């Protein structure tokens, strides 16, 4: 939550309460929230027991689920494919659990899509982090002492994060090449000034949620081979290939890393506890290989720009709450037949109701 969205929700008729200190990392004081009409509270446990709607970033603990008011609506990241026990606990609490990851990627739900809004920030930050760690400048410079060639950036995966990484690298003057298994994504990369790396993988496409479909082992091997040369020629490589609900595919093997330039930087945006797109990625650490390549796997890179990440996240939550708000009745409208709610509501009425997790 940020003060602007708090003010908007208060204007709609919500009573907004925020935990003391919630905005400090985003440069918002408790006084800012009070000015916006929100009430600042200190006792999290007591508020969890009285709130009709609880909105947060991270998934709750089992202990906190036990404190929720029966029938409360709980909105957060839920990691549902890996948190089966947590889903059972949420159902048992009687809460209606809304998973932000599961909000459909449709035109109507776009304003509520936290995955996309945060990926935008993460894509920008991936280039900033890489530029900080690269011992070169990104733009071309013509000086009396000679000409400096532009840095070469290779972006793997042209989703929201990838497109923002391309745009940011181009703004900084780098020469950008990009690859994705989707032809339409390659066209988007070219529209931003990147060179598209085209590898014939046969039949590919997107899921109904807008994510790239998972490749077969044969397609992955062919892709890795095609990418190896681009990696070896690049100063910065940014990987963004996540497969929702599954372990991220390894797109850059240790052998490919060995072929890269000394001092080259890889930023793995798919880094997690289960690995990432790069063999050797360690989540939230920087690894320097024997040949001097830096592999960076910072999770939640968007948090480096906390003010704007919060602004966008809060706006997504605010749009969700506004969309289902009955201004006449001053209440949250709830209908599981609604296409958006059908996609993102996991638990309701004491049961797991989402068809993928029943």
Give a verbal description of the structure.
This protein is an alpha/beta fold and 358 residues long. It contains twelve helices and 18 strands. It has a seven-stranded mixed sheet, with helices on both faces. The chain has two domains: 3-102 and 305-350, Rossmann fold (3-Layer(aba) Sandwich); 120-299, Rossmann fold (3-Layer(aba) Sandwich), CATH 3.40.50.720.
Describe what is shown at a glance.
The protein has 12 helices and 18 strands. With 358 residues, it is of the alpha/beta class.
Strand and helix map with partners:
Layout: H1 3-12, E1 17-19, H2 30-35, E2 39-41, H3 44-50, E3 53-55, H4 62-65, E4 73-76, H5 84-93, E5 96-99, H6 114-133, E6 141-143, E7 146-148, E8 152-156, H7 160-171, E9 175-179, H8 183-191, E10 195-196, H9 217-232, E11 236-239, H10 254-258, E12 265-268, E13 286-288, E14 294-296, H11 306-323, E15 325-326, E16 331-332, H12 339-344, E17 345-348, E18 351-352
Parallel strand pairs: 1-2, 3-4, 4-5, 8-9, 8-11, 9-10, 11-12, 12-14
Antiparallel strand pairs: 5-17, 6-7, 13-14, 15-16, 17-18
Helix pairs in contact: 1-11, 6-7, 6-11
